[in-house]
Amino acid sequence: MLLKLTIEYDGANYSGWQLQAKHDSIQGRIEGVLERIFAASVRVHGSGRTDAGVHARGQIASIKLPRDFDPPTLMRALNAMLPPDIVVLDVAEVPDDFNPRRHATSRVYEYRVLNRRIQSAFDYRYSWLVRESLDLSAMNDAARVFLGEHDFAAFQTLGSDAKTTVRSVFVSEWNRDGVFLVYRVEANSFLRHMVRTMVAAMVEAGKNKLSAPDIAAILLAGNRRDAPAPAPPGGLCLVEVRY
User: Fold this and answer.
1) What is the DSSP letter of 23?
2) More exposed terminus of the chain, fewer Cβ within 10 Å: N or C?
């Protein structure tokens, strides 16, 4: 019996989605609870990794159960046993050939920048505090540079094992939400630290330290050393995986 899980989590207390020896992960927590329920090892396959400190509102995973189990009952059991910062929103039976990574057509992320002088006691875990005034128009000029198919080698973590660094970006835009600037990006897939490095470059554009043509030149050259360090992980959230 193959099931699809829709999961949301606050990633602040975890080393990321992926299982890591001697580190607490989202995948590890869910697998631990499943082992308690079924008295057997159950592997959880995610649609993709999120890094340490990154959040999700719509992570997708699949599990193959050792025996039939009612999906709503399993969802209730998981939520009763998981910590409060990991919640299973839905459990549904899917065809046996469903693969949450390979069958995904796109992923949607959001990044939140708190643009004011003083930190927030409530939102500090879910945003990047940038105290300098930011030019939203310049940031959107920079965001449009990323639209389309490009080689994002300059915007990935060095040492990545990705087979190709070419990605297709369908949506790339900033909007203002009160004191927050919210970046929304949708692509067929993402490289490690790609969104956070893009955000860092666009924030530099908002400070008038980089221009859209500067960022286009970095993208074209493909040299990681030309791009800024990634923005902090707490502002990033996986919103949706589309199929």
Assistant:
1) B
2) C
Place of tokens 């067929």: 188
Decide if 178 contacts 208 (C-beta within 8 A). no
Q: Which residues are catalytic?
A: 51
What domains appear along the chain, each with residue ranges and CATH number?
2-93 (3.30.70.580), 106-242 (3.30.70.660)
CA 234/CA 16 separation, integer angstroms: 11
Contact (CB, 8 A) for 5 and 63: yes
CB count, 10 Å around CB of 55?
A: 24
